[in-house]
Design a protein that fits this description.
single chain; alpha/beta; nine-stranded mixed β-sheet; seven-stranded mixed β-sheet; Calcineurin-like_PHP
């Protein structure tokens, strides 16, 4: 698979015949349908950790919301699809500050917002607006949280990351993982980790091999397969 022809500042990719734009913020833009896809926002992960005694700065929800708001202001999407694990746990809505709830309600009120159910949040809070579904199909594409390997699928859940070797050093970045028939989104949540795309968990989804589109500061970069390396120790599994 190769990236589609793009402007110097953009990387495009083809999926099931559709032209999509992976964005450096970790979102996916489907211009023809004016659909913005975000995944694994994990709102209130910081407060969940704090409740267990691991004190993290309580600003992850605000930071993640700010990214989504900026994208909405610049792209003006008709539909926003949040691909599951939008909230870190079932009690996240109880910890969500009122100011953040109002910001979410403003987004769901301004757009056709679709909450795809995730394993962390099977029942998104109704009072925040939007509509919930397990799977959403638009044209040749199907959107769900946990990837199955279906052709035309856009999924999340695995938080793909690429470790890249070049010029004597290595860098690890969140990435989009795709083979031209299906795609797994990076996690957008401020405190979310990542699973190396060479991990065995990706093999059933991409049986012919995977290509990584790594997030840079201002654009997304297609990564050559030969530049990808596994995390050490080999075979170690990341836990969400």
């Amino acid at each position: 698979m190769t990236a589609a022809v793009a402007k110097p500042s953009e990387t495009h990719l083809h999926l099931a015949g559709e032209l999509l734009t992976p964005l450096p913020e970790g979102a996916l833009w489907w211009a023809r349908e004016r659909v913005l896809v975000v995944s694994d926002l994990h709102f209130e992960k910081g407060s969940a950790f704090a409740a267990r005694g691991q004190m993290l700065p309580p600003y992850d929800t605000a930071a993640t919301l700010a990214v989504v708001e900026r994208l909405c202001a610049s792209l003006r999407p008709k539909t926003i699809i949040s691909l599951g694990d939008s909230f870190h746990d079932r009690a996240a809505e109880l910890r969500l500050p009122d100011a953040y709830a109002r910001r979410i309600q403003a987004l769901t009120g301004a757009h056709d917002w679709v909450w795809v159910e995730g394993n962390h949040d099977p029942d998104p809070p109704q009072h925040l607006g939007g509509r919930a579904t397990k799977t959403l199909r638009i044209g040749p594409l199907v959107f769900r949280h946990e990837p199955t390997g279906e052709a035309g699928e856009v999924a999340g859940h695995l938080h793909p990351a690429a470790k890249i070797i070049g010029r004597g050093r290595s860098v690890r970045r969140r990435c989009f993982a795709s083979d031209g028939a299906r795609l797994v989104m990076p996690a957008m949540g401020a405190f979310t980790g990542g699973l190396n795309v060479l991990d065995a968990a990706f093999a059933p989804i991409f049986p012919e091999g995977v290509m990584a589109f790594a997030l840079g500061q201002e654009r997304v970069f297609m990564v050559s397969n030969k530049s990808l390396v596994a995390d050490k120790p080999a075979g170690a599994r990341w836990r969400r």
